[in-house]
Design brief:
- By secondary structure, the chain is mainly alpha-helical.
- The protein has a domain at about 5-70.
- The protein has four helices and no strands.
- It has helices spanning about 5-60, 60-70, 85-90, 135-140.
- The longest helix has about 55 residues, at about 5-60.
- The protein is rod-shaped, with a radius of gyration of 38 Å.
């Protein structure tokens, strides 16, 4: 006949066996999950590598020029009549009431940008903006949104 201690040891051995069985299969499942995650990481790194190569190709000047000619055929180079001086930008624009009052650009001489003398000391970029600066002008201009 089984004694009480033998019965307890046998029950304990059965429970330990069942516990080890469950732990073994949980470890196998976790290892499979770990391998799957590592495979996904490798695939993502490879995809990132390919995307970086494509980005580099698409940012080449020849490729950008071909895309520009294909999708933006109406885009033209900047003409000399489109250049203005800084003083022209800071002066307040005069409202035009009718199209017949528009200035005739083809009769005007082209305005050429002439740089001022370079200051001998470095410019303080953190100094407060002058009242007739571009920032002050931009505060007075009405902003209109547009899309292509």
């Amino acid at each position: 006949m089984l004694t009480r201690s033998s019965f307890l040891l046998l029950t304990l051995a059965i429970f330990v066996g069942i516990g080890l069985f469950r732990v073994k299969y949980e470890v196998i499942a976790l290892e499979a999950n770990h391998l799957r995650v590592q495979k996904e990481i490798k695939e993502n790194k490879d995809a990132i590598h390919v995307l970086k190569a494509e980005w580099t190709y698409l940012n080449e000047p020849k490729s950008l020029q071909a895309l520009c000619h294909k999708y933006l055929p109406e885009l033209k180079s900047v003409g000399s009549r489109q250049l203005v001086t800084f003083q022209d930008m800071t002066s307040s624009p005069q409202p035009q009431t009718h199209a017949s009052h528009a200035p005739q650009l083809h009769n005007q001489a082209p305005q050429v940008f002439t740089p001022k003398a370079i200051p001998s000391k470095p410019v303080d970029r953190h100094a407060e903006a002058a009242p007739n600066s571009l920032d002050a002008y931009m505060d007075t201009v009405e902003v209109k949104e547009f899309s292509l």
